[in-house]
Amino acid sequence: MAAEGRVLAPPLRPPSPGGGGAAVPGAVPEPLLAAEVLALDDEEDLEVFSKDTSLAEVNSFSSSVPISPSSMINQYKLEDEPELRDLFITVDDPESHITAIETFITYRVVTKTSRGEFDSSEYEVRRRYQDFLWLKSKLEEAHPTLIIPPLPEKFIMKGMVERFSDEFIETRRKALHKFLNRIADHPTLTFNEDFKIFLTAQAWELSSHKKQGPGLLSRMGQTVRAVASSVRGGGVKNRPEMFTEMNSYMEAFSQKINVLDKIAHRIYKEEREYFNEMKEYGPIHTLWSASEEDIAESLKGVASCIDKCCKATEKKMAGLSENLLPILHEYVLYSEILMGVLKRRDQIQGELDSKVDANKKAEKDLFSEEIGKLEDKVECANNALKADWDRWKQNMQFDMRSTFTNVAENNLRYYEECLATWESFLASQRVELHMEEDSEDRP
C-alpha cells in the first residue's frame, strides 16, 4: 500500500467500543458492541501474523504521563484472583521431531501443584499438538455443556506464516500455554481425570490411555444421534427462553467479533507497510544532505526524526501483536465453541422431547424411567451452562476492556513520542534561523 500523502504520525484509529474500566464482579452483563456491523469487502485474504520476539517492549515515553489506567486493571485482576492457587502450568521449550513419515513439534509441559490427588508436586512431560486436541475432545465428551477453552487452529491457511517458522511455533506455544491455564483456572474442568493424566503421564502411558477410550462404533453412534437430533424439526420445542436469548446473543457477538478481528488484521498490515516505507524514507534525506551543503543539517535532522518515528511505529506494532490480535482471535474461536455448546444442549433437550412425544403416542408410561433420567440430564446440562455462561461473559468483558485500554495507552505513547520528536526538531530549526537572522543584521 502506498504511503503517499500520509503524515509521519498516522491518524489515531478509534479503538473498538469495548474500552472502559475494569469489569466489576457480579455486574449485569451488557452488550459488548454497537448495534450496527461494519460492512467489509471480501476482496482479499487477511494476513495472520506472529509477534516478532525481537521487538522491544512498549515503554512510557515521558515521566510526565499520568498514571496508566491499566494499573487499576492489574489491581482488579490481582484482587479477583484466588488467594491460594494450587496448580501452576508452563508450556515451553518447543522441539522439532523428524521421522520417516512426518515432522512435528513437541512442547514441554511443566506442572507444579500442592493438590493431594497428585502423587508428586512437580511433573515434566512432552506433548505434541495432537495430544492437546485429544484433551479438548475428552473434555467436551465429559462436559458437553461447559465452555472448553479454544485451541489454535491445526491447519495453516493462505497468508499465514510458515508452519515451522520460529514465529509460528512461538505463537502456538503461547496459545497452548493459555489453553492449559484456562482449564486449570476452571472450577470444574481443573479436576477432570483426563486433564490430570495429560499433565502427569509419560508419552507411552498417555498413548495407552488414549486406546482405552470409546471405540469407533460407539463414537459413530454418538455422531449419528447428534446429527439426527439436529435434523429433527430444525429446533427444540421446549427450549427455555434464556437459552434462546443466549443463542441470539452469540450470533450477534460472533458477527461483530469476526468484523473486529478482520479490521484489526488490516490495521496491522497497513502499519507494517507504513513501517517498511518509513525505513526507506529516512535514509533518502541522509543521502540528499550530501549534495545540499546549505541545508545538510536540516535534512539530517529530518532523517533522524523519521528514524525515531520508525522505531516508535515498531513498538506500536508490537503492542498490537501482543495485546490486541491474540485476544480478538481467541474470542472468534470462543464464539464458535459457544455455538457448539448451545447445540449440544439443544440435542439433550431434543432427546427428552422425542421421548416424551413417543410416550404420549403409546398412551402408556412405557418410557417413564428413561424420561426421568433424561429430565435429570437436561437439568444438569442447563445448570452447568448457566453457571459457565456467567463466568465466561464476565471474563470476556474484562479481557475486552483491558485489551482496548492497553491499545489506547500504546497509541497515546506512540503519538506523544512522535510529537515530541518533531517539536524538538522544529525548536532547533527556529534557534538556527534566529542565529542566521542576527548574523545578517550585524554591520
> What is the share of helical residues?
55-70%
Overall pLDDT level: 78
Structural class by helix and strand composition = mainly alpha
Q: How many β-strand stretches?
A: 3
Distance separating the two termini: 54 Å
The largest sheet has its strands arranged as 1-2-3
Helices and strands, in order, run as HEEEHHHHHHHH
Rg over CA atoms, rounded to whole Å, is 28 Å
Largest sheet: 3 strands, antiparallel
Number of helices: 9
Shape, per Cα inertia axes: elongated
Strand content: 5-15%
Unreliable residue stretches: 1-82, 156-161, 215-234
Protein name: Sorting nexin 7
GO molecular function, one term: phosphatidylinositol binding
InterPro entries: AH/BAR_dom_sf, BAR_SNX7, PX_dom, PX_dom_sf, PX_SNX7
Family: Belongs to the sorting nexin family.
Keywords:
disordered N terminus, about 450 residues, 9 helices, PX_dom, protein transport, mainly alpha, about 5% strand, single chain, coiled coil
Helix-strand layout with pairing:
Blueprint: H1 70-80, E1 87-98, E2 103-113, E3 122-128, H2 129-142, H3 166-185, H4 193-200, H5 203-210, H6 216-231, H7 241-289, H8 296-362, H9 368-441
Antiparallel strand pairs: 1-2, 2-3
Helix pairs in contact: 7-8, 8-9
